[in-house]
Specification:
Blueprint lengths: L5 E8 L9 H16 L8 E8 L8 H10 L5 E4 L3 H11 L5 E3 L12 E3 L8 H12 L3 E7 L2 H15 L4 E8 L7 H10 L3 E5 L2 H13 L7 E4 L4 H7 L7 E5 L8 H14 L8 H20 L34 E6 L2 E7 L1
Parallel strand pairs: 1-2, 1-3, 3-4, 4-5, 6-7, 6-8, 8-9, 9-10
Antiparallel strand pairs: 10-11, 11-12
Family: Belongs to the leucine-binding protein family.
Protein name: Regulatory protein
Keywords: Signal
């Protein structure tokens, strides 16, 4: 097969459904990476071209079939995926080391599929330190755990329950809901009746927005704090300022974090997209990282990706909006606990 003139990356992001709220920032951040790579040598000496593919669980076409066909036809050279773990698990059985697959968001950990590199934070890195900080400050005695019904919330909650045992506190409610639940009112009413004074919210995109709106409408913030690992700036704005009191988020990236690396990244982002670009956030920024990770992986290690995986900790040094990461293969980003203030995050605590 003739070598193609462009290096084509399938950018897998949710374009519809509960997680579709993340799409604009994911696309915009990836475009910054493409512009930077193409000003230099691209990837593998070729200009980078993005192919957008809907990776929402609600998408009309099965993503496994789409990706398998594209790989069979030689139509893509790599995958960068910012989607939920359920999609990653389905695709890992299809890709089979035929192209490198970079998975960018926070996830539940434990990914060992050869040829697949999960670069996001795990519950041990994010959730554990955040729970510890909130326990130290607010000392809640009863926690509730609410999430969508798939692997990341269930695995994260399993970790949370184990971590909370060390504080001798009770988990009084654990609930999982389908994507796109028509009304969050019964869920929030059950939460109110549980007597919890803290809730871990592992809902995705618009489902998290709908939950927080109902939570605020019912005045639940007066008796309960909220913690989320996946609430980002777009979701925050969609919730509305009046529904965000005592909401905390933990992440390795926030658009407002005052670091030199983020200031430089924001300057490049707005230079390309203008002042009214989609709000920067952790999930969007991760696609920027994913493309740079892919480029560095192939440049530094050639075809070694075919016999390696996340667990091997290859030394990949790549550009990020957070810092220059991965010098020894084991470097991990800083993690912050932030508080919602109006429709923005503030009061960043390094964990």
């Amino acid at each position: 097969m003739a070598r193609q003139s462009c290096f084509r990356v399938a950018l897998l992001i949710p374009l519809c459904g509960s997680a579709g709220i993340w799409a604009p920032s994911c696309i915009s951040s990836a475009q910054v990476a493409v512009e930077e790579l193409n000003r230099q040598a691209g990837i593998d000496g070729r200009k980078v071209q993005l192919i957008m593919i809907d990776a929402a669980v609600e998408a009309a076409e099965p993503i496994e079939e789409i990706i398998n066909d594209l790989i069979d036809m030689g139509a893509i050279d790599a995958i960068v995926g910012m989607h939920i773990s359920a999609i990653r698990q389905r695709l890992s059985k299809v890709v089979r080391q035929r192209v490198p697959y970079i998975y960018t968001p926070l996830y539940e950990g434990g990914e060992t599929t050869t040829g697949l590199f999960a670069i996001g934070e795990t519950p041990q890195e994010q959730l554990g330190p955040a729970i510890t900080r909130l326990q130290d400050i607010y000392k809640p005695r009863k926690w509730a755990l609410i999430g969508n019904d798939y692997v990341w919330p269930r695995s994260s909650h399993s970790y949370a329950k184990s971590h909370l045992k060390s504080f001798d506190v009770d988990v009084v409610m654990e609930s999982y809901v389908p994507f796109g639940l028509s009304s969050m009112k019964p869920v929030v009413e059950a939460l109110d009746a549980s007597g919890a004074d803290a809730v871990l919210v592992s809902l995705v995109g618009q489902d998290a927005v709908n939950f927080n709106r109902m939570f605020g409408r019912m005045g639940m913030h007066k008796s309960m704090i909220r913690l989320s690992c996946a609430m980002e700036e777009n979701g925050l704005m969609a919730c509305g300022a009046g529904n965000l009191e005592r909401l905390f988020a933990v992440s390795s990236y926030f658009g407002a974090v005052a670091t030199e690396a983020n200031a430089a990244f924001k300057e490049r982002y707005h230079a390309l997209h203008g002042d009214f670009a989609p709000a920067l956030n952790a999930l969007g920024q991760s696609t920027y990282e994913g493309l740079h990770y892919l480029a560095s992986l192939l440049h530094d290690h050639g075809d070694l990706w075919r016999v390696s995986s996340t667990r091997d900790g290859l030394p990949v040094r790549y550009s990020s909006g957070r810092t220059l990461l991965g010098g020894d293969g084991n470097a991990r980003p800083s993690v912050y606990l932030a508080r919602a203030d109006g429709m923005q995050f503030c009061d960043f605590k390094l964990l």
